[in-house]
Amino acid sequence: MFRPMTLSNAVELQEVAHRMRKSVVRMAAGKGEGYVGQGLQMADLMAVLFRSEMNWKPEAGDDPEVDRFVLSTGHYSIGLWSAFAELGLLGEDDLDSYGEDGSRIIMSTERSGGVEGVELTGGSLGHGLGVGVGIALGRQLRQHSGRTFVYLTDGEVQEGSTWESAMLASYKQLDRLVAVIDVNRVQADGPLVLEVEPVSEKLRAFGWWAEDVDGNDIPEILAGFEAASRVDDRPKALVCHTEMGFGVPLILNRERNHFVRVAAHEWDAVRTEVEA
User: Fold this and answer.
1) CA 196 to CA 158: how far, in whole Å?
2) How many domains does the chain have?
3) Which structural domain, as residue segments, surrounds residue 86?
């Protein structure tokens, strides 16, 4: 059962993020490999988005007041599933089936995969902001008050389609569009292939409001969204600097932690670290 709750207290939201990290570890444990690092790093952002910032529900339909959420980076689905579990949309059996044949929660988001509230089938990167701009533009034409949030990554900032979308969003003054850009400076085989900084300055040059925040600091994230709420004439972006595997040193300190391979005997240590 869906249980929306709006929280503003940073301590309560930190407890939410902690539960989400435990769900991430539960999903990944025993699988041998997975996108556990991404789920850990994004827990603070997802806690704030789904439990504090957004007026969201899984069956948004054409409700003019409900916020929409687009996860552009499909393989970050493990973080979305942890948020859905927190909201009561997924149970323990669902979490245990993550990534398995026949499971409805897979390693990359799928719009028709059986989970209500997924806006985009993820896979090739760089499409999410374009989809979000399309949704936001349609809602602007219908004079909807609800916002459109797009979660994307610094890897996608290397895609030309992202900047085409950013240019259109500014031109159309899509002030109900909010981009959350997760900057962890990691790609599949190691560090960023192409330097993308300064992301905020580039977005401002495209006509956006943009601010840098620590994406693993809940009070700073809350302050960033509060600042964004005072802007009403352009699209907004929070450029959120995160650490892959945040909260679990065993994952955080791995040299290659984009798609983590964890031996069976290491999971007990991972669970102990996330509990701490």
Assistant:
1) 7
2) 1
3) 10-275
